[in-house]
Design brief:
This protein is α/β, with parallel strands linked by helices. It has eleven helices and 13 strands.
Length: about 270
């Protein structure tokens, strides 16, 4: 295509799964390109239109190749006209295994099977915003470097520690006196709110244990799949369940909304 550097031509119209197979992702737009570079993500190249070219040169600091392209060419790389004049092609960071180097610090967000990239991106953004220390992703969760996920997360994936996890990893948290909390609309679940765990709901001992874990930041909040909830093998690894009260006209909240509300309730930023 005219005006497109030959060494980048292979990215024309590449889908996320193709980029993933090559260990790459595309950060679309100036904001994501800027945040990827600021976070130390290994950016291989930046493509920019004429209006953004000087800004891209400044962002690169002379260490990343910058290619000037016309708008149609950038559209072809992005797959649609969302790039706002700039995009970065970058190397995917490798997800380390959870608990690989000992028990991590909390609070932790655990996502066994979030399949919608918009939901995942929103949850990662809230995770970072509310002071959670990391997010654990199960094998069936969608790709955190998916383009839609990156847009929804506003680049949270670049700075929030992400780990690959399995249901068996929850046992190590329980052994380390974490409260492993399932977000579940089930009988016997404690009721969460901005004032803590609601009095009179669930056993007093369960409430006290959970409140202490929250206060110490030793919690892992487990959220379920958008349709099927928390997989049984993950639910069995949880020590308690919490729910958000909703009106009779709604059976449940969107997982990104519910997870964000719970992270706000359990945030170390708002407990003192």
């Amino acid at each position: 295509m005219d005006g497109f550097p030959s060494d980048l031509s292979r990215f024309l119209g590449m889908r996320d799964r193709d980029l993933r197979a090559e260990g790459l992702f595309v950060a679309e737009g100036r904001l994501l390109a800027t945040r990827a570079l600021a976070a130390g993500i290994p950016v291989l190249a930046i493509a920019a239109d004429s209006a953004a070219f000087d800004e891209a040169i400044a962002l690169s600091g002379g260490t990343v190749p910058v290619h000037q392209c016309d708008g149609k060419t950038l559209d072809a790389v992005a797959g649609f006209p969302f790039h706002r004049g700039m995009l970065a092609i970058a190397r995917r960071p490798r997800l380390e295994r959870a608990c690989e180097s000992g028990t991590p610090s909390g609070p932790i967000l655990v996502l066994p099977e979030i399949t919608d990239p918009g939901n995942l991106g929103t949850l990662l953004r809230s995770c970072l915003a509310f002071g959670f220390r990391s997010a654990w992703l199960g094998a069936r969760s969608c790709d955190p470097w998916n383009r839609k996920c990156l847009r929804a997360s506003m680049g949270a994936s670049f700075t929030l520690p992400l780990f690959d996890a399995g249901s068996g990893d929850l046992g190590q948290l329980v052994d380390a006196d974490f409260g492993v909390i399932a977000a579940a609309m089930e009988e016997g679940a404690l009721v969460a709110g901005r004032d803590g765990i609601a009095a009179g709901l669930g056993s007093e001992e369960a409430r006290d244990v959970l409140e202490r874990c929250i206060e110490a930041g030793r919690i892992a909040l487990v959220l379920g799949n958008e349709h099927d909830g928390i997989p049984p093998e993950w639910r069995n690894g949880c020590t308690q369940a919490v729910r958000i009260p909703v009106s009779a006209g709604v059976d449940s909240l969107n997982v990104a909304v519910a997870g964000s509300l719970l992270m706000r309730d359990f945030s170390p930023l708002t407990l003192h």
